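S1.2 Input.
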Amino acid sequence: MDKKLVIVYAVLISSFMIAYPFMKSSASYLSVAKQPNKSLQTTNCKTFQSKVQTPQEIQKTQNKANIIFTMDDGWETQFTKGFKILKNNDIKGSIAVIPSKIGTKGYMSLRQLNTLYRSGWDLMNHTYSHRHLASLNKQEQKSELNDARKWLNQHCFTKASNIAVYPYGSFNDDTLKTLQEEQYRSARTIKDGIQINQIKKYEVRTINLLPSTDILWVKDQIDLAIKKKQSIVFTNHRFEKKADKAGMNFDPEKFKTIVNYVVSKKDELNILTYSEWLDIKEIK
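S1.3 Output.
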């Protein structure tokens, strides 16, 4: 073999032997970088953790009235008007979501729901398609509830997916059994009234804010709740000034008046999301 060719081969081999460990290290590094993150594959959902309170803080919190603002169905005006009013007062609310309605005319978009959830709101389970539960058999009720919970969880709205709100206030013994068996945390009815401290966790009462609701009466109910250290779970549907045929809307200016009154009493009450209220009541 030509002497010059031998020298060239020798140089190439020597260079390769010197560079090989670095090449191997780089290749190893690159292959690790391309590997998918298994933890991200499992979940990308943000975990909400409650603020740790001292026993003294817990006792002080439990020794007050509670106000919870809930809104049913996920109407768009709840985002464009209700959310705005509460946000301006640094208050979080709770929305009962119907997954099959999201993104349809008159209802919120998924992006709007994400904004609410990132703002600390509860997104609760209003069943998947908003059917009268009492008209369904037990398996159909289970599917309505669990399909909605699955949808909420898949979209990372996990914090209150196990809190149900009955469509039309409709439920029966099969509903109560299903909620217990499927380990739901609570359920809200449309039965009017201040919620007393002996809570039936699947039959929580509410005060419905309707076109006919008198503001002075609402203020009296808030004062009564403060006096008795009880809870009011308010419920709204659409926010519109003019009453519609269904009578399920509420004037945004009246809502603002109620919110302002609640804020004026903030030293005497807690303003909470539904799940935060359950935390205070130690309902798991």
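S1.4 Remarks. The chain has ten helices and ten strands.
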